[in-house]
Structures are given as structure tokens and as C-alpha cells.
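Re: the 227-residue chain
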Amino acid sequence: MRHTLIMDTGEPQPIRVVVVDDQQVVREGLVALLDLLDDVEVAGSAADGAQALALLERLGQVDVVLMDLNMPVLNGVEATERVTRAHPGVAVLVLTTYSDDESIAGALAAGARGYLTKDAGRREIGAALQAVVAGQLTFGADVSRQVAGSLSAKPLPREESLPDGLTAREAEVLGLITTGLSNAEIAARLFIGEATVKTHINNAFAKIGVRNRVEAARYAARRGLAG
């Protein structure tokens, strides 16, 4: 079943994407790959973050920036932060070679809504584009394993060291949200009930002043709770 972004006109509209990668062969390959997706339209491409910002100023409607991280002039993390600040309606989906904790946490803290590595296939990229446009947080399977593994290796923090009055369990749940797990999956991982997870999430959201999982993931990344 084909999924398309529905605009106020009621007519199906393609997801307009800007591709940002400093390697020309990769950039052109991504443009060609995205052109194969019926519900995606490539609005433009750029070789670094500075070019991407200039392009966004010139273009009309853009839904997603597909962002590499390691680029000259203006790298992907800095560009993500500037895009999300200047164009809050544009989602950033990171597509990079790196899946280390520092890169993932930096991208999330900058405001990225999704994180994939460059071995992702066409279907995975298409699904991730749909997810970030819908306001969801999404990760590639390998990235989810990396974040979850980092979290499981970390001891629970001392509550007196946590920000905003968070309990250790609330901080742990916030960290797991950054992996893209559902409430049921978090419950299974922590061996607690799903209703308990919801309670921890509601309490944590109230304490840190966020409204949804994307904002919570950014908070967790900025506060060092994401792994």
C-alpha cells in the first residue's frame, strides 16, 4: 500500500526531500534512489550544510533534509541544529556512515528526528522519511541496537545527579525512548507493566516540559541520558 503525505488541499502530495552529502557519487546515488520512490520528490541537493541552508531559503515547501554528518564547511550536526531552528517545519533524517554513541547523541541533541546508516536500503529510507514527516522518531535497526546496547551497559544514574527532579527509572525510560522503542517494548525490556511505563513517561514529560517523544529524545540526548 502506497503512503503519501496529505496536504490541506486533500490531494496526495509527495514528500519533498533535500539530499545533503559531500561525496558527489553518494549524493547522486541517493537522488537516483529517491527518484524510484513514488511518494518522494527530490527538491534539491547540496554538498555541505551551508549549501543546504542556502538551498532551503530559496526553495518553497521542503519536508525532509536527508543529512550526512561528516562534511566540510558546515558539518551535519551543526547544520541540523540550524535547520531545525530556522525551519522548524522541516524534519532532518540523518544518513551517515557512523553509528557511534557520540554521533547519534550529537545528531539527536541537534534536533534530528531519525538516524540511518548508509547500508540502509530503499524501503528502509522510504519508511524513515514517512516516519519523520509524521513527527515520529525513527532509527535503523543497527542504530537501535547500538543505542540499546549502550544503555544496557550503563548503570542507573544516582538520582541526586539527575536533572529536573527525574527519578532513575524515569531517566532510564527517557533513554530507551531515544532508541525508538514503543511503550510495550520498553516494558518488556525493563520487566515492568506497560501502564507503569506510561506513568513514568507522563511524569518525566511533565518534569522536563516536553510534549512528545521527539522532544523527549532531544532532551535525553542533550542531558546525556541517551547512551
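The first helix runs from residue 24 to 35.
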